[in-house]
Amino acid sequence: MSHAGVGHHHPKGIKRWLYTTNHKDIGTMYLVFALIMFFVAGGMSLIFRIELFRPEHVFIQPQFYNEMITMHGIIMIFGVVMPAAAGLANWMIPPMIGAPDMALPRLNNWSFWLLPFAFSIALSTMFMSGPMPDFGWTFYAPLSTTFGPKSTDFFIFTIHMLGLSSILAALNIAVTIINMRAPKMTWMKMPVFVWSWFITALILLAIMPVLAGGVTMMLMDRNFHTAFFEAAGGGDPILFQHIFWFFGHPEVYVLVVPAFGVISEIIPAFSRKKLFGYHMMVYATIIIAFLGFLVWMHHMFTTGAPIESQLFFMYSTMVIAVPTGVKLFNWMATMHKGSLSFETPMLFAIGFLVIFTIGGVTGIMCALVPSDYQYRGSYFVVAHFHYPLLSAVMAIMAAVYFWLPKWCGKMYSEAMGKWHFWLTVISVNVTFFPQHFIGLAGMPRRVPDYPLQFTDLNQVSTIGAIVMGLSQLLFLYNLIRTVKRGKEAPQRPWDGAKGLEWTLPSPMPYHTFEEAPDELHGYED
Amino acid sequence: MTDKKEKKEIPKKRKKTILYLCLGVLFMFGFAYLLVPLYSLICKQLGINGRGVNKATRLLSHMKVDTSRTIDVSFTATVHGGIGFVFKPLIKHVQVHPGEVKLIYYFAQNHTGKEVTVQAIPSITPDYTAKYFKKTQCFCFTQQYFFKGEKADMPVYFFVDPKLPKRTQAITLSYTLFDVSDRLKKNGLPSGIGRIDIG
Amino acid sequence: MLGFASAVCYLRRFSKRLCQLAIFIGALCWQALAQAFSSYWNMPRGVTPVSHGIYHLHMVAFWVGVVISSFIFLWMIWIFVRYRHSKGAIPGNVHEHMGVEIVWTVIPIILLVILAIPATKILIKIHDDEKPAMSVKVTGYQWKWNYEYLDQGIRFFSNLATSQAEINNERPPGPNYLLEVDHPLVLPVGEKIRFLITSNDVIHDWWVPDLGVKQDAIPGYVNETWTKIEKVGTYRGECAELCGTYHGFMPIVVKAVSPAAFKQWVAKQKTVSNGLTPTKPKAPAKPMTESELLTLGKTVYGKNCAVCHQTNGKGLPPTFPGLVASPIATGALEGHINIVLHGKKGTAMQAFSEQLSPSEIAAVITYERQAWGNAELNKKAGHPVLVHAADIVKKEIEESGS
Predict the structure, then answer these.
(1) Catalytic residue list contains A299
(2) pLDDT single digits (tens) B141-160
(3) I want to staple C194 with a disulfide (CB 3.0 to 4.6 A). Which of A418, A437, B63, C135 is the partner?
């Protein structure tokens, strides 16, 4: 069937990508887009890390600094981690469940193509006369409403488009998983990656409309004289934070739950052992997703919340640590008594475990309201949330190395992959670990300049960031080299890898599983 | 072969799933707007910070004055956005027994050099006491129109509910004064003539 | 369970050297951690009962975290040493085990309860609302703080005192770079002080780590918190919520003094009316000369205007317009006075009638109309370049309508 890839009806060149409804093409586009935006947003972070190399003015003005942190946050979340995870879903979910394609292929095309346009609009504000959005990725009112620059309306439109794109992608994924599984693939036989994405899709369907509603209120406050978020008209700026974090906290799980799924595929493959506690893993993810909706106020402990709500949200936040711990211990138990080898995907998966553990531990510290009074708005929080987010990035990298041979039929350079891993994991820690201490010592976040006592650790952090940025070029080079002239990859490059996708040849043909498979080829079979 | 497949009707079961999920999305979009009244309702019920309780309460006829304790009520005022207004309480503290109705005045004078409509937004701290701090009449319930240079003493009648927890010793009532003239103009609403005097 | 005994055996037999290495690395880490936590890298212990409580809670949470992560990392290292494919490890076949699942559900719950108890206790203390000895209203402005002593009737602005020259690399930074203000908040020690925190424009956050106080300043609403400082000293903090361009340039300085010294300070403030906002504008006894106006104007400009409009008057367009040959500074005088007095809504341009005295306003307008070659442009167009305090007072009285 591999002739279909060069079949008569398929347009070539740019038209192939514009018109494609093939889940593999769309997956590739998502991943390439995420990679490009990764360098754009990473470049922005280097700009402000260099500004922070020492106190005093270095080379950018405070206004531009605020614009950079805003764009960095928005792009990293909506332009890098979410599209990359969506790319993985597009590529892998149909072959993993034995489906020929996504349930709604044309919608799939649209949900991807919304992204480049959305970000073009956001980035076009850079060339307008007037500041870019400069209120941080959390765009709290009234800084973003009454006091927002003119470009804020472009920003709102971008968010609307991103929301629509995410909703459509999530809808597609959920429908695919519900309806298109191979006959033998019951819910509790689904690969954990598919389970994770199913849960993620449901979270997305629940939260993106809320964000869309929130930014629409913003738009109305700015242009149609309503007063949702303005005390003068009977509104309340804090209401914006409630709406934002009602979206914002589950959003954290949107970023990290697909990573859970990836890790649950990779660790068993390189431990040559079935995932430990499959059922507990699935239940834990569901519980995490559910609890994620009940903790949003832990982002707002210093807004003057009454003690009752502070206590409720402190306890509910702490409870999340339990299912998260269960997941972590199950991954450990999967490796325990396994037969481990350490190829690049496995190294990145282990990197995920280490980084995620540190982020989880500081997360518990942040959950405690009294100590949160000192952490909130400081660099401690910056360090804290970059750990889980970078663990998600590392999981995506692990997934790319893991499935790349399947996607393009070529093997990447293992030596370069290992270099990439070690440079990344070390530089991530050099960048972000000192930020815990900077924050504890009292440096607020989102400041372009700082008192002298924070200098040394900021310098360490900046050096780490530069190394991290440069080592991603190695990743880029490795990817391009693999696609252009990598060695031929076997059908199953990892001897421990199980599941339907590995029964397909490498590279995966353009059309797969046009007839649903009879066997699942999991660990039981 | 594949094109044929794409043109095929979407199976009925799949259509149903899509419908349900879309309904869910629509509900959540509505839910964002539902959060607005929900939020005021919760604030009102819990009495958070005086939010959503900017309405007059009726005096309770059976309410008894609790002379066994005295609450220290302080007053402050903020003029938002540095508009040219003088706005301050005429008395900074008052000692009240729970259940006892008091009348105090805020003084305001328009220095902006033009006619403006202002709105005062109350805040009551500590947050939980808002539930027990009742205003029977207040200038903050309505927008106030000020002629150029006009000054006024604006009354607040209030009492502290005797159900106030025993530990509470002090309550602060703060007002923030906003210029809402632009807002009224943009919404095409009349700005009214003369201040709505109460009390 | 999980072959622990055999694992220990294995370590003994094969990995004596590895063991030594692990101990060495552990000792090093310990050393580094101890170093980190004895120096300024840690959260300050602070000088209030609340900040002590927070500090201890933080340390307990920290050590719980260290124990959990050490356990996971040691287990991980153990796995990597013991179960290597290259050493011929054969995968085991236990894939579900209810016992261990319960163990690693229950143990974290116990640890969390251990943390939740002190956290709840301290939180209750933070919300203590016993009657305070005095109250201070803190109002956040884009990019300065305003303090109002409600019982003493003192009110003043607290601006960043670090000079633009230090920020722009023209002069080496002083020891309290970005942590110094012109008028610190002076408070007595040993007394319960209530803070009423609000904002004049966007959301700010008043944070002094040594006091263990962090509270959002929300426009239109007032938050309440309190402190009781135990030790005389100067405590510094910064705004902790992104509030626009110069969010990093609005420090907080609290000077805690003895109650007697505080009384003296209050008495002094009442006589000099330092920064006090006059309820009615007063004209100074004698009009200032042009050179006096220019000198005062330059100082006022440096303190209040140069952050945005820059020392060279070029501003940072498009956010902050320049004043060199600008339509305001070289246009009709009326418009210039108007914008300085009343500000511009929805921008960082504030109403300075509230913040500066008529003499200062007159001086700064005079300075802006003459500096950077604006004098020539104004003279050419026939616009006045000299403004006296009396003009400002006249205008203010006109506007007040009395």
Answers:
(1) yes
(2) 888 888 888 888 888 888 88
(3) C135
